[in-house]
Every structure is written in C-alpha cells, then in structure tokens.
Write a structure and sequence with these properties.
The protein is an alpha/beta fold. The protein contains five helices and ten strands. The strands form three sheets. Strands 1, 4, 7, 8, 9 and 10 form a six-stranded parallel beta sheet that branches. Strands 2-3 form a two-stranded antiparallel sheet. Helix 1 packs across helix 5.
Length: about 170
C-alpha cells in the first residue's frame, strides 16, 4: 500500500555555525538533507516551515533570539501554514538543533495538527549536539503517533548525507 508522505522542515540559510566557524550558506543544512530525501521519495510532498517573523541575518543575534523564544516557550507564527495534514500517513520532520531542541516554530507546527495514528520520522542537523531532547518533545506533543528514533546529521556534512537520507527514506516507505 502506498503511503502519503510529507517532508516538512525548517532550515536557516545565510550565516550559520559550521565546524567552529561562521559561514554564509546559500542553502541551510536541513534544507539540503530534505532535498536529498525528496529525491528518493519523488511522490512525497515537501513543505518548508517558515516564520512570519524573520530572524536576524546575523548568526550570533539569531541564536540569542532563539534562546529567548525557548525561555519564553514562544510559538512563532508560521508563514503560509498548511490547511491540513489529514491526507498524510507519514511526516518526515527536519530541523536544526537550536539550544538542545527544535526551533520553537517546529513546536507551533506540531501543535497545529492532530498527528494521531501518523508516523513521524525526525531528522536533525547539528554541529555536535545530536538530536538533543527534540525526539522526547515530539513524543510529548504527539502522544498518539508513532515517533521514530530520529536521525542526527552533522550539519557540516549535510551535502554528503546520502546514506542518512536513504535510511530516512526507507523508514518512510
């Protein structure tokens, strides 16, 4: 039976922390991995989670904004939100690790829909902190869904994460 798959991701372009340095990225690491997964699952739909409020273009300022959102347990408004996820059986959710968890807009996304009975496959790009506590929070936010273990991908190696993308695609099939 064919599954209806959604690849939903949040990714940051521009200034990012990569291997101990601030680099300017044309495409965010999470976006690069999401595109690799989409190439392996051509029938899947892809959705970029984006915020109404734009974060600072400065990486150092952006991480302070993200820390403040985490402290406040903010739920940033999503630009161009989906109307529904009802038609999807499986949601591949990608995000960078910000302060040991997902960006707060991913919480907004997860709290916007009923994920009961759906499979959620998380993947997280990071510079050494892995998945942090993100999978635990996904399970808490979506208690009636099947949340998979999750895949941590070193952000600086996103362009070479073909094996990880293949593993994620296999989990979704």
């Amino acid at each position: 039976m064919a599954k209806n798959i959604l690849i939903a991701y949040y990714s940051r372009r521009g200034e990012n922390y990569v291997n101990g340095n601030i680099n300017n990225l044309e495409f965010g690491n999470t976006e690069i991995v999401a595109e690799k997964i989409k190439a392996l699952l051509p029938d899947a739909d892809m959705y970029k989670i984006d915020t109404v409020h734009e974060y600072s273009k400065s990486y150092m300022t952006c991480i302070e904004e993200a820390k403040q959102e985490l402290r406040e347990q903010a739920r940033p408004e999503i630009k161009n939100p989906l109307d529904s996820i009802d038609k999807y059986d499986t949601i591949i959710l990608g995000y960078p690790n910000w302060w040991g968890t997902m960006p707060m807009v991913c919480y907004t996304f997860l709290e916007s829909f009923d994920f009961s009975g759906k499979t959620i496959i998380p993947f997280c790009t990071n510079e050494g902190s892995g998945l942090g506590s993100s999978v635990r929070f996904i399970k808490k936010l979506c208690p009636d869904s099947n949340v998979r273990e999750g895949t941590a991908i070193h952000g600086a190696e996103a362009a070479y994460a073909d094996a990880e993308a293949q593993d994620i695609a296999e989990m979704a099939r």
